Amino acid sequence: MEKNDRLYKIRHSAAHVLAQAVLDMFPESKLAFGPPVKDGFYYDFELPRSLTPEDLPILEKKMKKIQAQRQKFHGRTVDIDQALDFYNQMGQVYKVDKIQELKEQGETEVTFYENILPQNGDVKFVDLCGGGHTDHTGDIGFYKLAKIAGAYFRGDENNQMLTRIYGYCYETKQELDDHLKMLREAEKRDHRKLGKELDLYVMSELVGPGLPLFTPRGMVVRDAIQDYLWELHKKNGYSRVLTPHIAKIDLYEKSGHAAKFGDQLFKVKGKDTDFVMKPMNCPHHMQIFDSQIRSYKDLPIKYFECPGTVYRDEKSGQLSGLTRVRMISQDDGHLFCALNQIEEEILTIVDIIKTFYTRIGMFSDYWVSLSVRGEDKTKYLGSEEVWNKSEAALESAAKRANLNFERMEDEAAFYGPKLDFMFKDAIGREWQLATIQLDFNLPERFDLSFVNEQGEKERPVVVHRAICGSLERFMAVMIEHTAGAFPAWMAPVQADIICVSEVFKDYAKQVMETLKEADVRANMMDYTNSLGKNVRESEKAKVPFKLIIGENEVKDKTVTVREYNTGKQETMNLEKFIKHIQES
User: Fold this and answer.
1) pLDDT band for position 3 (50/70/90)?
2) Which residue of the set 129, 282, 337, 468 is catalytic?
3) Residue 488 lies in a domain
4) Could you say which of 312, 373, 473, 542 is catalytic?
5) Do 148 and 201 fall into the same domain?
6) 181: annotated active-site residue
7) Which residue spans within 231-281 are E strands per DSSP?
C-alpha cells in the first residue's frame, strides 16, 4: 500500500483513532507508533497495566464515539526543536526518541497530525506522523480490534516491551465480515491443531522448540511430496546430490552466508576443527560443480537435493508450528548454465511448477512477481550486459509460458533477478511458495567457470529453484489448504476397509491383501465395531475413500466406494478402484 492509496489512509487513520481512544482510557500511556498493515493496523503503547481481551470492546466503543464526531485530520509542519520540547513536556519518550533520530539525520522539521473537532476547533489528539489520512475520523471504514501482543520497541529485544493492539480494517462492512469469516475458517484449519489431531508431527520439549518430529503418518505425506518432486525433476535432466549437515565456517564466509545469518548459525565443536550447521545448501553445490573442469558441452548441469536440510537458530518467539522452524528441509536445486541457455531452462522449471501446483489444485489462482533492478544500478552485482540479458530472458520465458506476471521494479536481489510465485489457498490467503532466482554472486565468489566454445573461461549463471520452498512450511500450507483432507496420492491412509458385519471379514481381508500388493495404503478397520462407529472414525481421520463391504459386495466381488470430499458413492470392482487410486 502507498500513502495515497485509499485503504492505506483508512487504516492509518484508524490507528490514530485507536491511539486517541487508548489515551482517553489511560491518560498516562506512552505512544510509540501505529502503521497500517496488510489487513488492518496496529499501534504500540507503554501502558500502566496489562490489557485483557475484555478491554478491546471498551476501546472499540471509544473509537466509535471519536468516529461519530468526524474529527478533522489536519497536518502541519513543526520546527524539530519545538517538537522535541512538546513531547518532552508530555513525557512521550518514544516520540522523543524518533524525533532525535530525525534530527541526527539532518531534518529540521517534522509533521504533526491533529484531530480537530469541527464544531469549535478544539484539538483532541496530536501525533507525530508523516501523513496519509482520510479527511476526518468518520471515514475510517469498518474495523474490529483483534488481539493484544507484546512487541519490543523498534523490534530490539534490549528495548522496552510494549503492548501492541492489532485491528482489522476494511472500506466496507462486507469486506470486514468476509475477512472475519476467513479467519474463523483459518482457525479450524490451523495446521498445529490438525497436525496433532491427524497424528502427522509432534513437538517435544526434550528435543527442543522448532524441531518437529514427523510420525509415520506424517512421513507418508513428506515422502509422497518428495517422490513426486523427484519424478518431475528426473525426467527434466536433474541429478541427485547429497551434502553434509555441517561444514567449516570458511565455506560460509566465502559464500557470504556467515555474515548474512550471523548469530543464527549453530556452531559445532569437533576434536580439532570447528564447524557450523549449514544454513544453506548452495555453497556445497558450488563445490560439487567446481570439483572438475567443465565444458560448455556439459551445460546445463542440474543438481537436486531433497531434502536439503539446513539449520537456523531462529528466535524462540518467532517459531510457529511448521511454518517457522529451526530444521528446514528444502527441496533445493541449482542449475549451472550459460547466458544463452537461461530462457529455455527457466521454461523447464516453470513447467515443473505448473505441473506440481496444478496437481494440488493451487494453479488456478496465482500471480508471479518478476523482480528486476531499479534505477540505481550500483546496488547490484554483475555487469550491465549480464543483467540485461538475464532480465530479458526471465521476462521472455514468463511471456512464453503465459504466466500471470507483474514486473516489479527495484525488487531484484542484489545477486540477480527472480520469479516469485504467489499462490492462494482454499480460503483465499496468499503464500509465496515457488521461486526461480538467477545468481551472479556465488559464481563470482567461488570463481566458477566453464570452457566456452572459443576455449576461454566463462562464468556460468547459477539458477536457484525451489518448488515448495521447505517441506515443513509446504506441509503446513497443504494441511490448511486441504483442511487435512489430503489428495489420495498424498494421504497417509488412502482407503479404509469397513465391514457392514463381522461375517464379511474374510472377503475384507482378501481386499486388504489385494490393495497392499498394488501399493495402495489401506487400513482394515475393526470389524467388531458397528458400521456407524467405523464410518465416523474414518471421517474424523479424513481418509479419502471408504470401502464398504456387505452381502452384495461379497457376492459380486466388488466394493462400495464412498469419497470423503464429495460424499459420492459408487459400487465397482477392485481393479477399477485401484486404477482410480493410481491415477489420482
Assistant:
1) low
2) 282
3) no
4) 312
5) no
6) no
7) 239-240, 246-248, 267-269, 274-277
Q: Is 334 a catalytic residue?
A: yes
Same-domain check for residues 70 and 123: yes
For the segment 70-86, what is each residue's pLDDT rounded down to a tens digit? Answer: 999 999 999 999 999 99
Please pick, among 418, 459, 465, 562, the residue that the annotation labels catalytic. Answer: 418
Nearest to 481 by CA among 332, 345, 365: 365
- Nearest partner of 564 among 219, 183, 220, 198, judged by Cα: 198
Mean pLDDT along residues 304-318: 92
Whole-prediction pTM value? Answer: 0.87
Peptide bond into 35 cis (omega under 30): no
pLDDT band (50, 70, 90) for residue 375 = confident
pLDDT tens per residue, range 19-36: 999 999 999 999 999 999
pLDDT at residue 1 tops 70: no
Q: What is the distance between the alpha carbons of residues 313 and 301, in angstroms, rounded to a whole number?
A: 32
Tell whether 472 and 525 lie within a shared domain: no
Question: How far, in Å, CA of 316 to CA of 326, rounded?
Answer: 9
Q: Is 2's pLDDT higher than 80?
A: no
* All cell numbers assigned to 213: 518430529
Number of C-beta neighbours around residue 369 at 10 A: 17
Same domain for 474 and 500, yes or no, is no
Residue 185 lies in a domain: no
What residues does 560 pair with on adjacent strands? 548, 571
User: Pairing state of beta strands 327-337 and 461-470?
Assistant: antiparallel
Per-residue pLDDT of 148-192, as tens digits, reads 999 999 988 889 999 999 999 999 999 999 999 999 999 999 999
pLDDT at 384: 86
Q: Which residue out of 62, 133, 136, 334 is catalytically annotated?
A: 334
Q: How far out from the chain centre does Cα 286 lie?
A: 27
State the total domains in the chain. Answer: 4
The whole-number pLDDT of residue 582 equals 87
Question: Which of 20, 330, 437, 494 is flagged as catalytic?
Answer: 330
Could you say which of 257, 278, 459, 464 is catalytic?
Answer: 464
Spatial separation of the C-alpha atoms in residues 517 and 211, rounded to whole Å = 35
Q: How many CB atoms lie within 10 A of CB 243?
A: 20
Residue 464 is a catalytic residue: yes
Q: Which domain holds residue 375?
A: 195-243+281-482
pLDDT at 381 over 80: no
How far is the CA of 32 from the CAs of 3, 40, 44, 407, in angstroms? 20, 17, 5, 35
- Cα separations in angstroms, 206 against 262, 320, 447, 472: 26, 17, 43, 20
Nearest CA among 367, 366, 333 for reference residue 469: 333
Rounded Cα–Cα distance for residues 106 and 102 (Å):
7
Task: Tell me whether residue 217 is one of the annotated catalytic residues.
Answer: no
Whether 510 is a known active-site residue: answer no
Of 44, 55, 331, 332, which is the active-site residue? 332
Q: What is the pLDDT of residues 485-539, one digit of tens each?
A: 999 999 999 999 999 999 999 999 999 999 999 999 999 999 999 999 999 999 9
